[in-house]
Amino acid sequence: MRLSRYFLPILKETPKEAEIVSHRLMLRAGMIRQQAAGLYAFLPLGKRVLDKVCAIIREEQDRAGANEILMPTIQSADLWRESGRYEDYGKEMLRIEDRHERDLLYGPTNEEVVTDIFRSYVRSYKDLPLNLYHIQWKFRDEVRPRFGVMRSREFLMKDAYSFDLDQASAETAYHRMFVAYLRTFERCGLKAIPMRADTGPIGGDLSHEFIILASTGESEVFCHRDFLELAVPGEELDFDDAAGLAGIVKTWTAPYAATDEMHDEAAWAALPAEDQVAARGIEVGHIFYFGTKYSKPMNAVVTGPDGKDVPVHMGSYGIGPSRLIAAIIEASHDENGIIWPKSVAPFDVGLINMKPGDADCDRACDDLYARMQAAGLDVLYDDQDTRAGAKFATMDLIGLPTQVIVGPRGAKAGEAEIKLRATGERMTLPLDAVVARVLS
């Protein structure tokens, strides 16, 4: 994509309303635009990152055996009355009425809708286990939306829902999602630590939050240093191996880890001081097992092996892709801007023409642009006639992993400079060697 044809509204000054790093950088980098309190439009650069994050989430959900569907944003209040949550949920739920005076709501979560889908089609235990997920916009009317997309009123959510015959098989489904989450966050360039959590309005009696450590985190967290070295399972993992999954979850839940609200001072004090890590944390995912909380009142039953109807055991599993982007920035930035992990960067490389209109520069850049695209790289080509300082500042701000810089002197000599955003390392290479180096 040529920058001269790309919508990238860079801001030189930081908007006053931006309180945290990710909000400041997303606004300055032209990723988002606030439309109202807690409501944001994703602009082209932000949308590219959002799509990359969603693609990773989809791949790992599919790998774990979940089936993607798409449920509506507007839900019937009658389903929530069935589950008993309509009156209990509180003012965060946006309640509306259609022209026929039917009560509707903008979905804050989808347990009721997915349970209704399940009970309409699944009759036998032979159709279990089942996990249905979607990636859809949610709305929760926060009293004080703040921090940009980190805590907005409308947000994108991947929510998955598992259905199983009994508690043992439901726990295996829980383990499956637990491990899928570890893999998802690692692929997004994050080290996520699972911590026992309160179930809140979702309900149930087993829950984990996945927390990344960041100095700008929302809450205080406590964990054992071993978490920083634990290896995340690779692609060879067998999601049908229940015992193997249980072993991984045991390894990842054995060391001490707790959010501030679940913190046990006595257990913490028992750890050697050198193993204690007290830090700020950001929640990037939350999983729940809640048994028959929804299936019983909503009559979501299957016929078991003995011919008797039993309510299914359920769990739900959430990741907020829009929030996750902000968390990645909080964990990966410097004073000049964002530093994207390669897996979620909006473009793989930024190509900088230092002197558009110079025949040698134009020729070298056009050739590199064509060859990098042919190699499958996403390239943002700065072909604009602006100052060198502005070009460098823009590329550092938007955080592309690699910058390829071509100036008149280098072009004449058949060379280009490569800069790695994460380390600041620079190298000069022959033009013919640039593509291979960027791909490495």
How would you sum up this structure, described in words?
This protein has helices at 21-28, 44-63, 77-83, 111-121, 167-187, 242-253, 265-269, 321-331, 359-374, 388-398, 408-413, 431-439, and strands at residues 32-36, 39-42, 67-68, 74-76, 94-97, 103-106, 130-139, 154-164, 192-196, 206-213, 219-224, 257-259, 276-291, 301-303, 309-311, 313-319, 333-334, 337-338, 349-353, 379-382, 402-406, 415-420, 426-430. It is an alpha+beta fold and 440 residues long. Strands 3, 7, 8, 9, 10, 11, 12, 13 and 16 form a nine-stranded mixed beta sheet that branches. β17 (333-334) and β18 form a beta hairpin. α2 packs antiparallel against α5 and α5 (167-187) crosses α6. It starts with 20 loop residues before the first helix and ends with a helix. The mean pLDDT is 95.
In round numbers, the mean pLDDT is 95
Largest sheet: 9 strands, mixed
Number of helical elements? 12
Determine Rg (CA atoms, Å): 24 Å
Helix content: 25-40%
Overall 3D shape: globular
Spans of 5+ residues with little confidence (pLDDT < 50)?
A: none
Give me the count of strands: 23
Strand coverage percent:
25-35%
The end-to-end distance, rounded to whole angstroms, is: 21 Å
Structural class call reads alpha+beta
Task: Outline the fold blueprint.
Elements: H1 21-28, E1 32-36, E2 39-42, H2 44-63, E3 67-68, E4 74-76, H3 77-83, E5 94-97, E6 103-106, H4 111-121, E7 130-139, E8 154-164, H5 167-187, E9 192-196, E10 206-213, E11 219-224, H6 242-253, E12 257-259, H7 265-269, E13 276-291, E14 301-303, E15 309-311, E16 313-319, H8 321-331, E17 333-334, E18 337-338, E19 349-353, H9 359-374, E20 379-382, H10 388-398, E21 402-406, H11 408-413, E22 415-420, E23 426-430, H12 431-439
Parallel strand pairs: 3-7, 19-20, 19-21
Antiparallel strand pairs: 1-2, 4-6, 5-6, 7-8, 8-16, 9-10, 10-13, 11-12, 11-13, 13-16, 14-15, 17-18, 21-22, 22-23
Helix pairs in contact: 1-8, 2-5, 2-8, 5-6
